[in-house]
Amino acid sequence: MKVLEVRTGFKSRAVKKKSRTNSPSLQATKSAQTRRKVVDATIHCIIKFGYANITTPQIAAEAGLSRGAMRHHFRNGAAIIKAAVIELHERRLRAFRRTSETESHDPGTMVQAYWKQLQNPTFVAFHELALAARTSTKLARILLPLEREFRERFLEEAFLLFPEWSTEREAFGIAMTFSQTFLEGMAIRVLNDTMDKKMVAPMLKLVENQIRSMNPAFADQPMEMRSSADAGVPVLESKPLPNASVLSRRGKATKLSALESAT
Asked: Which end of the chain is more exposed for a tag (fewer CB within 10 A), N or C?
């Protein structure tokens, strides 16, 4: 590499001529790639070992870097975890956008798509962090603000992606919160093997029909349980309630039966 002499007053100093291999754009690309390696390694270690058991040497080894090289890009462990949480949220948003880019916005299709997302190892990492934040003040300070931001972004993007809910914004917020809370809780039980897997299908159907009932654009009929001959497990089915005249006749019949029993 050539060296140029640059005069500054009475003194001269040696300046290395920058080669193309050290251009700012290339350095930025390399830096981004290294950061990506560290973040991916961190997520992998959280999934593999659990948050409580990971160390920075483990992450460095997983990323194929020295600890010094890793510290050059992240000043401490907290910065690494924060970057990993941000990446986890971005992955979940990208997955959500992919599943939403379809002509079918039927509740059943979307419930199945979100449930599929929750089977991804990314959810395991997210769950590990959420659980650890309960007893780790440092982790909670990192995770909770990012989690609130993620929920807000998720809801706003969902509202834009589902125009059929444009006149039912409040109901949509409730539907999204309900489905996320229910399905994520169910995913944790499946993950911990504390839920009979035969119950997954009827529970997904329950969520689907609950969402369907919240928007007149899908259905305005109440839901009623029935037994599915095909699956052999309870599922939900839309079924109209009897009208007022039928209820009146039933009421009279019940009263007459009661009087006959009394006599």
From this structure: C
